[in-house]
Specification:
The chain is an all-alpha fold and 363 residues long. It contains 15 helices and two strands. α1 packs parallel to α3, α3 packs antiparallel against α5 and α10 packs antiparallel against α12.
């Protein structure tokens, strides 16, 4: 087959890598779910120490610190599961016109999902204590097995730079032709700059409008900063390629902003299609936890002035409030993953029986 256009040749070259990235994204999210199902079930049966004298020992998941370790990861796995499904659908229904978008989304989501998988596996391993190291309990083995995904089908850092380069190209083309944004979810940049309230209450922080506005504001601002910095280096005599390389820090922040905004919007669409009120409530809590955790884990919102120090502190406080609200749903959430019992581990069911002398001596 002969491709006359340069973009068609490039798309054909990337096609084998793209399907690999789609598969890695879906697999990374699934493995995170397996680890979280094991660690959460273990935390719902394992007790340690009593809060009151002569009182019953406390379940691990009833400790606020343990909730803070696992529940934000649960929220991320749920939200990223929707983006993985979005990517699979995009690939199955791909058209020649969608090749660029498919490349950008597969690069971004593969990188973030595989990174998050490693974070999740490590935290789940530690949350299970020494049990997490046992081969039969799977978590430690999975971490070693799936670490390669961070560089397989493209090093994650390089993939994120490709995402930023594609966003920059889209931005430059729009500015040059004075056309509105039409692809990669950048249509929000056609409207006015979102306004963020000076004082953030709990209800505001959990509002989907605020969450979308904040993520769109960050992406818009970083894309403009990135374009300005690349132009500055070019004005100093650097080539376009060198200017891009020198702006790698902004490129990394921009790619992360694009990925998290895209992931949020995909989940919001899924949430809007849910009719059952109880499920809608839980999905709203998961969405809010995802957003609050993304804000709390990165310095970019403070670094670029998208949030004040006081508002960043309010976000951190809200994470703990959401942990409390999601704690009663933890078992239902991991059960909803639909993971067969045979894919889990002994400590996900009866950790005491799994560690009886009879079972240990038979290993």
């Amino acid at each position: 087959m002969i491709f006359e256009e340069r973009e068609s040749r490039f798309a054909a070259f990337l096609a084998p890598l793209t399907v690999g990235r789609v598969n890695i994204t879906a697999e990374a999210v699934y493995i995170s779910k397996v680890a979280l199902a094991i660690a959460t079930r273990y935390a719902l049966s394992r007790r340690a120490f009593a809060v009151t004298p002569n009182g019953p020992e406390t379940l691990l998941l009833d400790y606020p610190s343990h909730q803070r370790r696992l529940i934000p990861l649960l929220a991320k796995a749920c939200v990223q599961s929707c983006s993985a499904n979005f990517l699979k659908t995009l690939y199955i229904q791909k058209t020649p016109e969608a090749n660029k978008a498919l490349h950008v989304y597969s690069s971004a989501l593969k990188a973030v999902a595989s990174w998050q998988n490693m974070i999740t596996l490590q935290e789940c391993r530690e949350a299970c204590g020494g049990q997490g190291l046992k081969t039969e309990n799977r978590v430690g083995i999975l971490k070693g097995e799936y670490d390669v995904q961070c560089t397989f089908e493209g090093d994650n850092n390089v993939l994120m730079q490709q995402v930023s380069k594609a966003l920059l190209a889209e931005y430059v083309a729009v500015q040059k032709k004075k056309n509105p944004f039409k692809s990669l979810g950048l249509q929000h940049m056609n409207g006015p700059v979102p306004s963020i309230p000076a004082d953030l209450t709990s209800s505001t922080l959990r509002s989907s409008k605020f969450q979308t506005d904040l993520f769109c504001l960050r992406e818009r601002d970083l894309l403009q900063r990135f374009a300005k910095e690349v132009s500055y280096y070019q004005a100093q005599g650097e080539s376009k390629e060198k200017a891009f390389l020198l702006s790698y820090q902004l490129a990394e922040d921009l790619a992360r902003a694009f990925t998290e905004r895209s992931t949020l919007q995909v989940f919001l669409e899924a949430e809007m299609n849910v009719l059952q009120a109880p499920l809608k409530v839980v999905m709203g809590l998961l969405r809010s936890m995802y957003v609050m955790t993304c804000i709390d884990e990165t310095a970019s919102f403070l670094r670029y002035g998208h949030l004040s120090v006081d508002n960043a502190a309010a976000v951190r406080k809200e994470v703990m409030a959401l942990c409390t609200d999601l704690r009663p749903h933890a078992l239902a959430i991991v059960s909803s993953f639909g993971i067969p019992d045979s894919y889990l581990s002994p400590i996900a069911f009866d950790w005491i029986e799994a560690n009886t002398w009879g079972n240990l001596s038979s290993e």
